[in-house]
Amino acid sequence: MNAFEDRVKGVLISAALGDALGAPVEKLSREEIEKEYGYVTTLKTRWYKEALGEEATLGKRRGNGIITDDTLMTIALCRVYKKERRHLDAYDLANEFTKEIAFRKTFIPEFGRDSLILDRLFYPEKHIFLRHALANCEPREGGIGNMVNCGAAMYIAPIGIVNAGNPLAAYNEAIAFASGHQVSYGLEAAGVLAACVACAFIPNVTVQEVVDAAISLAKDGTKQAIIALTKEAKELRKRKCSYRELVKCLHESISPFSPMGDDVHRKIEKVGIPSNHYTPSRLFSIEELPLALAFIVYNDGEYYKSILDGINSGRDTDSIGVMAGVILGAMYGTKYINEDDIHLLSKTNQLDFNEEAASFAEVAKEIILRDLQIIRKQEGIIGH
């Protein structure tokens, strides 16, 4: 396996790893995680909802390495690239990506059976089917009206891979593609995370260079949130603070940009009550990406500690784990990932990461080489 393919594999496995580590504790606060688990360190973690019975789990399973929709949609996007073998935009989201999630069955680990990814998706991700398969909208306007969340950013890493080494191109392609799904700061996060992954492929890249790339491209509240949280993480690292203080300070830093705090559950008492939660805004940011970057900064890029700090911090734990994971997977490949974790993720989710990585890396390399040929031709024209 060559270096590029290993880093592609690192991204895909790290997405699954962060997803599966965070899934059993998703939507719990940091305090609730600490009370129930202490500090989660293993894929073999019991899902807290199991103790609440069938009504709470809705027939789903988590723990023991089971992935969620974050990874399923990441793999689905890889498959779109493998079919089209070129750069993508919103029309591809409306076409092949919609087919992948709404018409082609795959193994859904949470269900323990083959099903449509659509059957597993949360409502903001089902918006893709509503807008493109039912409403027949203009693809670039597909994200209009959606709940603003991290749903596009969580699966966008493959766009960073096909633009490896070119953060600006990754940002632009992610915005073009994900405009069919998300708007406002939800769309912005997808562009910035794709840029982070692309930057992380640069040989010998540093954590600070990835952060700088994110800040240089991010807009509005997303930019300010990343600046605030990564700055805070640097200061807290100097102080060698406790984990409790780390999460408390980072949550305080994100609160001006994401006001819901630990109140992430949708309850009947909240229906009809006006708020700014999940609505378009130039001042807001999703939490998951700034937090993921902050945990990477605080741990100076240490692989497992960055992901584990992220998934133990509470709230949208699986997506925080995914975002930290794909950046670090792009930087390091598979060299820091425990073989036991890879084996469990592969077996539990019926995923052949070697095959997935090899086939996608081949297509990504083909796209990148074609881009380089175009650049050389342009340089020739300028030279004349």
Automatic annotation (TrEMBL):
InterPro entries: ADP-ribosylglycohydrolase, Ribosyl_crysJ1, Ribosyl_crysJ1_sf
Gene3D superfamilies noted in UniProt: ADP-ribosylation/Crystallin J1 (1.10.4080.10)
Pfam families: ADP_ribosyl_GH
Domain of life of the source: Bacteria
Coiled coil: none
PANTHER family: ADP-RIBOSYLGLYCOHYDROLASE, ADP-RIBOSYLGLYCOHYDROLASE-RELATED
Protein name, as recorded: ADP-ribosylglycohydrolase family protein
Organism: Ureibacillus aquaedulcis
